[in-house]
Structures are given as C-alpha cells and as structure tokens.
Amino acid sequence: MSAPLPVRSSGDHAVAIAQVNAHLDALSARFVSRRALLELVMLGLIAREHVLLIGPPGTGKSAVVHAIAGALEARAFEYLIGRFTEPSELFGALDLNALREGQVRPVTAGMLPEADVAFLDEIFLGSTAILNTLLKILNERTYRRGQFSVMTPLISCIAASNAMPEDPLLAAFADRFLMTMFVEPVGDHELTELMRTGWRQTAEPAEPIPPLGRGVVAELHEAALAIDLTPIHEAYAHVVRKVRLVGVTLTDRKIVKGQTLIAAAALLRGATAAGPEDLWPVTYLVQSRAQQDEVREVLAVELKQSRNPVLTNSVARATYGPTAHAAHLTEQASLLLESRPALATDSLYESWLVRVETMLTRIDAAFDANTIPQHLRAVRASLEGLLEAHSSGRVPDLTAPATVEDDEAD
C-alpha cells in the first residue's frame, strides 16, 4: 500500500497560487467577458483534466485557448479538424526508414503525442480512426499505432465545437471531457468594451506575457492530490443524487473524476481540505446547456456558499448563487468605475453613463436593500452617486472611497 501524500499548509503554495491569479488577470485583460473560460481551462490544467468548449463561431474560443497555451511554459499542439483530416496530421506520419525494416513507427516530433497542451477545434468532425486514437490518449495518456506504443506528456486537451453532437457514439466520446462550458457572444452591456479592446489590439499588438512555469502547474497538481476530500464526500453524493433526480446523467467515471476539480478548487481557495464552497465544479460536469441551467436552480441551496478568490467568474457562471453573483457584479462594477472618462465633456461620457445605469439595474434585479452584500453595496453607492452628480450638474470625485456609514444610513 502506497504511503499517503504529505499534507502541507495552503501557505506553502501561496506563491504559486498568486502566480496563477496574476496570469489569469493578465490574460483576461486581453479579452472581454472571457475570464470564466480562462479560469476553467486553468482549472483543467491544474487538475490534469480535459475541457470542452461549445459555442457559435466568432466567440473567441480559439483565440482564448491559443493565448493561454502560448502563455504557458509547455509544448502546445493546435489543429482545426475537418471531415477529411488524416490521422497522420495529428499523430505523425510513418517513419519510412523504419517501414523499410518492417517496423511501424510514426514520427511524432512536434505532433499531438508529444504535446503538453492540445487544442483541437471542431473535434466532432474527426474520423473514427482519429477519435479512437484520441480516446486512448485522453483516457490513458498513451499513443498506440500497431505495435508502437508510447506514453504521452499531455496535461490537458481543450476541444471546441459549434454544438454538442446528436450521434450517441460522438456523445460517448464527448463524455471523456470532464468539463463543458457553453460560450456565448459578448453581452450587450459589454459591446463598447469589446470594440475598444479589439481595436486597441489591432492597432497595437499586445506585449507577450511571461510564460507561467511548467513547475508551477505541476506543483499545484501535486498539492491538489493532497487535499482532504473527506469533509465533502457526503455533500458531494447528495449533490449528485439531486442532479440525477432531474434526469441529468452523470457517469460513474465523471462522478469520480469530478473530485479532482473539487480538490483543485479548494487548493486555489487557499484551503487544505475541501468544503461546501468548492462543490461548484459539478455544474460543468453536465454536457447540456439547458440541463446546466436546471442544475444551477436545483442546487441553489447546496451551492450558495460557493466562492473562490482566483476562479471568481467561473464560480459565478456555475452557481448564480448570491455570494458568487455578488462577487461577479462587484468586479464588473469596479472595472466600470475605473473606465470612467476623465472629463464629463468627453464624447464617450454619455455612453459610459448608460452602462452605469445598466449596471445599477443588474444589481437591483439581483439584490434588494436587505440582501445586498456590503462590498457590492459600497460600489453600488459609488455608481448611484455618479448618476446623481451628473443629473445635478456637479463633477463627481471618485478619488474618495465610498463610506460604509453613508450606505448604512440609507
């Protein structure tokens, strides 16, 4: 029997966790409304699990994955699969010299079998031969062709498609991807920021982000394996039972592997043991958009405590719980305050005020005066103060922080 992994304090990995958070901050600054996607890919890397992204063309799936793969100290492989893609385009052509000697040995240099991170676009267009070979790599990290067999260093495979497949055989293949995120176009309230960011990157290509060291991801993966999951086993089983009651199928494999995500979430929260705050990844185990929405509602009580200081947006997307939703709104409102034009005479000031009004509407739709958390209450007061100052013709001063006393007096 193998010896148990040593339990280390969360402080032992604080530097690595901070590096991951800073990396996500730098990457998300380049994309509008894609922080949750970046977080989920990062969670997959730390848990050494695979991620499936479903969404219409033009929603930035490829760009985001390309950015995060390029900002890692890792060998990456990317390919857009078509109906006529040959297996050799992914796994390497046969070595002709070896073939002359009667041996079947592919040349895998620079191909998927030697990649640490893989991104496969339009994954479900792959032939049976491609998908069968991928299954071996995804499940066992082994590439086999004939008598040739080699272990692959794959950390995580991120795949993308415009829609989930209807073919039962392809659906069974999709189940090998532990997490599924449905990617939507940027919302109306962020269109201006999308245009501004996109144009800025067209005119001035962004500076390269220093790569996140391979050792950082490896360290956090090992640390996640040492997380104590005992406190949440019964709670996790209860969550799975509730999910099954609404007709959502989670395979035994997914239920077991889902624990790796819970452990990684607990680690990034700075804990040494998992708690109810870390059960939120269960939402991403579901591979139907409608059923993900249903799971959020059914598990509203069980997931209401969900939180994570590093994976804020993916938690909010997974739960719609008050705590996560408030944190997400606070972050968006704070960014909105920071983007305020310097002068009220600026041509963009009026459109910025419209965004402020929209944000206030979103906050008020989610919380009333009795339920709004204090941190969101403070940032809401700043937004409301700006609108009142504008309507009265006064120039607002955002250099002074919002006071709790004023908010509570209301």
TrEMBL record:
<dbReference type="InterPro" id="IPR003593">
    <property type="entry name" value="AAA+_ATPase"/>
</dbReference>
<dbReference type="InterPro" id="IPR027417">
    <property type="entry name" value="P-loop_NTPase"/>
</dbReference>
<dbReference type="Pfam" id="PF20030">
    <property type="entry name" value="bpMoxR"/>
</dbReference>
<feature type="domain" description="AAA+ ATPase">
    <location>
        <begin position="47"/>
        <end position="187"/>
    </location>
</feature>
<keyword id="KW-0378">Hydrolase</keyword>
<dbReference type="GO" id="GO:0016787">
    <property type="term" value="F:hydrolase activity"/>
</dbReference>
<dbReference type="InterPro" id="IPR045427">
    <property type="entry name" value="MoxR"/>
</dbReference>
<dbReference type="InterPro" id="IPR050513">
    <property type="entry name" value="RavA_ATPases"/>
</dbReference>
<protein>
    <submittedName>
        <fullName>MoxR-like ATPase</fullName>
        <ecNumber>3.6.3.-</ecNumber>
    </submittedName>
</protein>
